[in-house]
Design goal:
Elements: H1 2-35, H2 48-67, H3 75-99, H4 129-144, H5 148-177, H6 179-187
Helix pairs in contact: 1-3, 3-4, 4-5, 5-6
């Protein structure tokens, strides 16, 4: 039993660490490639709240593997989470590559000359594929760890964040692009469940 727990813990924790490292490193590298020297460490998207959430998910994992090791040995659940991490990562990176300079980590409150409304590629399917990808990725990390409490918490917290951020961002997009954005928003879903 100890060997299974040790192997399971190592596999799941290494996958999680790699997922986090790859997500943030690739975000930073893409931001640097697209936006050049104006990119700062803020492009790593690591905040105090994010760090706290990841630490709490690790604490949940360690407590559960010690007291309830049977929760962590469901390979198919862990593999579903891994698939979600990969899918979320791909959707987000496609969003960044498709939007190019129009994709920024901070919401633009003024219209820049190079800022164009992107409605092709993955943006034909959802208006906010970057948010959609992160939503899937973040929940997937917790399913990959078989963390039931963090999975629910991540889903609720990330959904709430985007349910507030999307209307705020779209306020400015409507100011920049007018009826062109209204038409686009009317026919393409946001990409985050229950957020119009």
């Amino acid at each position: 039993m100890t060997d299974i727990i040790t192997y399971t813990a190592c596999r799941q924790l290494l996958q999680m660490l790699f997922a986090i490292f790859f997500f943030h490193a690739s975000e930073y590298i893409l931001a640097l490639a697209i936006h050049g020297s104006s990119v700062t460490l803020r492009s790593l998207l690591i905040s105090k709240n994010y760090l706290l959430a990841m630490i709490l998910s690790l604490v949940e994992y360690l407590v559960e593997i010690y007291f309830f090791p049977g929760l962590k040995v469901h390979w198919w659940i862990s593999n579903v989470g891994l698939a979600m991490v990969i899918i979320g990562e791909l959707i987000r990176k496609l969003a960044i590559l498709t939007a190019g300079q129009a994709f920024t980590h901070l919401i633009k409150t003024y219209h820049e000359e190079h800022h164009k409304l992107v409605t092709h590629g993955v943006y034909r399917l959802v208006r906010h594929p970057g948010y959609c990808g992160f939503f899937i990725w973040s929940i997937g990390t917790q399913i990959m760890l078989c963390n039931p409490i963090s999975m629910v918490a991540f889903a609720l917290v990330v959904w709430r964040f985007f349910s507030e951020r999307i209307p705020y961002e779209e306020y400015f997009l409507r100011r920049f692009f007018g009826s062109q954005y209204d038409d686009y928003a009317a026919r393409v879903p946001s990409g985050v469940p229950f957020v119009k």
